[in-house]
Specification:
homodimer, alpha/beta, seven-stranded parallel β-sheet, elongated
């Protein structure tokens, strides 16, 4: 029989709900809050440490297999009343499944990079939904890790987690001071660095050579890469357009650029 | 001096606000409601008939050039008070610029199709934001028109309009009874029809020949194309994956497929 929480005044729930508020709060606690049966199951299967698992009675019933998997690795599990669930939720219609997870150690060293693989670097990417989708696409296409350069949105915020569909648990993330220094370090390690720009005079991505160890740099949604980052990369590449170039949104452009990079790996 | 509307009880505003509610309401009125300075300006520049233009005093000041363009073609223009704007808005923080537009005539005949161009067909696409993004990407990549097959979301709903960034005003839209009959008709007109599926046994999109007149069929976000539609197309194509195939979301997959189709046109 699971311990039950029926009060919206429960102190543990109130403290955990605050993890939704800010990256600073999450860093301070060393934890993040994950919502949804599939995402929580993905966290459990990816080796993320789950401190606390919360689910409503109806969620236990509806998502039985997911909940069993999560409960089997969680340190504590609670059944919460339906009126408690919205406190922990970032969505309008919560499924009623939540995990409080330990932030993973961010100690991926550049020494772990695989020379025959491709990587993605994001500079100052701010929109969490967009960020999540980019991680999801990167994982789907076989990218082996993502560099977060300068002030990016927090990968463990609720919108980024949801948008990533769990990719954030599986893709190695490298946190870097800024874009230019990341480009220089990666260059020194033998990676070709590609700056993506919206500029018809840049090299068309279709003629870029991604066959060696490569890192694709993508900038902020509104402003693109910083000039300093562009000049720190080996190549400037762009998507050639038949239609209205200014119309391609950031995540569609990233999908196409990542695809072109992986297409060149010959395995497609 | 513009006529001013200061009351939230204004009958005209109340009637126009209802255009946000449903596609049925929009069809009945023969109108749709468009929000935001840039989107309204795009409507004005694309030859959409603007019956009524509303803007707050601060929006007139902030988006002067946009508002002048819109007012120059609108049949009636009003200045509305700040507290009236939220009635007409679908967003949390309205810019304060709105147009009531005439639904464009939907009489694009298949006879107008250009044989040397590429087209997109969407079957039962339901998510309006996704739908809007797909239209935007299609326009950016040079697609010449979009077939909406079966029950798709309304292109003139607030989320689809916003996601499309105005592409909905510029791309010819063809409304079709269902996917299979559209595929058959297009086949008879000499177009090669390509059904996109998630199936590693299908032809990789990288080896598909889009050099002739081509139409790419994309299905519903959750379920893909109907089986009947797939069998009505000439080819079954798929995105070959290095990573986690199930992780690619609908709009990323569509971006990549459209890109591959246009890439083959040789102009990239």
């Amino acid at each position: 029989m699971l311990e039950q929480i029926t009060s919206r005044q429960n102190e543990t729930v109130k403290i955990h709900a605050k993890l939704l508020q800010s990256a600073a709060r999450r860093r301070e606690a060393g934890q993040f809050l994950c919502e949804g049966a599939r995402l929580c199951r993905d966290a459990a299967e990816s080796g993320i440490v789950i401190d606390t698992f919360y689910a409503t009675a109806s969620a236990y019933e509806k998502y039985g297999a997911y909940c069993q998997k999560i409960a089997s690795v969680a340190k504590r599990s609670y059944q919460i009343s339906d009126h408690v669930a919205p406190l922990l939720s970032d969505t309008k219609h919560p499924q009623g499944v939540f995990c409080v997870c330990r932030l993973p150690a961010q100690a991926h060293s550049l020494e772990t990079l695989e020379k025959d693989k491709s990587y993605l670097a994001l500079e100052q990417m701010q929109d969490p939904s967009n960020f999540g989708t980019v991680l999801r696409t990167a994982e789907a296409l076989g990218i082996k890790g993502v560099f977060l350069c300068g002030p990016c949105c927090d990968p463990f915020g609720p919108k980024a987690l949801r948008g990533s569909m769990g990719a954030v648990f599986r893709l190695p993330l490298f946190f870097c001071q800024d874009g230019p220094s990341a480009a220089k370090q990666l260059g020194e390690k033998g990676f070709a660095t590609f700056a993506s720009v919206v500029d018809s005079s840049a090299q068309p991505v279709t003629s870029a050579d991604f066959s060696g160890p490569s890192v694709l740099f993508i900038g902020n949604e509104g402003n693109g890469l910083t000039e300093n980052c562009v000049t720190s990369c080996d190549h400037r590449i762009t998507i050639p357009m038949l239609g209205r170039a200014e119309s391609l949104n950031a995540s569609a452009a990233t999908s196409i650029l990542l695809w072109e990079m992986m297409r060149d790996k010959g395995a497609m």
